[in-house]
Amino acid sequence: MRDRAMDSTVRGRRVRPVRSRRAALAAVLGLAVLLPPALSACAPEPDAQATRSSLSKVTEPAAPPKAAEKFDAKKHPEPVAQPEYCTAYLVITARGTGEPVGNQLVTPVARRIAEARPGEMLTVDLFYPADTDINEGGTEGVRRLIDQLNVQAEHCPDQRTILLGYSQGAFVIGDALADPKDRLIGETVGELDAAAKDRILAVVLYGDPRFAGGEPYDVGTFTEKVGGILPRRAGVLAPFADRIRDYCVKNDFVCQASDSLDEKGHVSYYRNGMQAEGAAFVIGRLGPRERR
Q1: Locations of Basic and acidic residues compositional bias (predicted)?
Q2: Is residue 3 part of a domain?
């Protein structure tokens, strides 16, 4: 693994973190799951108690996290992201807590989308800690994602963006799309420009801690009256409603807050067909193929 790249290739395109330096990865408890080759990935078995505890701490601190100062957009207005290549589409993946860069639940979703449109996609992993200190790491993630989208809109006005997130990654994406007053993390890190909002083509989320039952973009076997551990207020993501699919199953203790300590629901997306469904949703929203 190289310090400035961690590069791999998807259909001839470079795949690397949004910011090129070594990611500080949390330890992963690995549990292999057998999947079809097109949608294969390793599923980390979450520690339910630790996950619930880390999410509950988001609302507990008496003082704001250090990242709120470090990534304050008014005090530090210079973007913390550099523009990526101006491909037709940019896919940004945001991993869940402890997932490795480039091998996460949404990796095969991104791969299937790229395979549908060879040569038109650039896939990058959002660089952020994705560890159990969600106040700190999540704040950084929201700032980096907002800046990346704003920078891309300015430098690549014809590029459309696709956002894919799982668990904490879904939390980060949702709060980046929301107004600062509706966020639990990243209230100080700035907002998406109008152009950046317009260029978002599709958003696919899995196991979202901020899942709100009853939204028009919700998909799955969830109980409508039950939200996530930290549910969003209804209508917060309404401007993006037709572009979002938020997947949640009824036994996922993260998007369906419960006292259950069964971890299996939160990783069931690897094998329940929802990865393929999410990819199909995005592919259905792609525009005409580029002329060669």
Answers
A1: 67-76
A2: no
How far apart, in Å, do the first and last CA atoms of the chain sit? 35
In a domain, 75, yes or no: yes
Q: Alpha-carbon distance 52 to 33, whole Å?
A: 23
- Orientation of helix 107-116 relative to helix 274-285, angle to 10°: 40
pLDDT digit string (tens) for the chain, length 292 residues: 333 333 333 333 333 333 332 232 232 222 222 233 345 455 555 555 566 566 656 666 656 789 999 999 999 999 999 999 999 999 999 999 999 988 899 999 999 999 999 999 999 999 999 999 999 999 999 999 999 999 999 999 999 999 999 999 999 999 999 999 999 999 999 999 999 999 999 999 999 999 999 999 999 999 999 999 999 999 999 999 999 999 999 999 999 987 666 788 999 999 999 999 999 999 999 988 866 6
Question: Is 233 inside any structural domain?
Answer: yes
User: Measuring CA to CA, which residue among 217, 211, 206 is closest to residue 274?
Assistant: 206
The secondary element (H helix, E strand) that includes residue 287 is none
Give the domain CATH number at 225: 3.40.50.1820
1: its two tokens:
């693994």
Assign 257 to helix, strand or coil: coil
Q: For residue 249, which of 234, 229, 269 has the smallest C-alpha distance?
A: 269
Instruction: Dump the DSSP string for 150-212.
Output: HHHHHH-TT-EEEEEEETHHHHHHHHHHS-GGG-SS-TTS----HHHHHTEEEEEEES-TT--
In Å, what is the CA distance from 129 to each residue of 10, 125, 136, 236? 23, 12, 9, 25
Model pTM? 0.81
Identify the domain containing residue 195 by its residue range: 17-285
Asked whether residue 116 is assigned to any structural domain, the reply reads yes
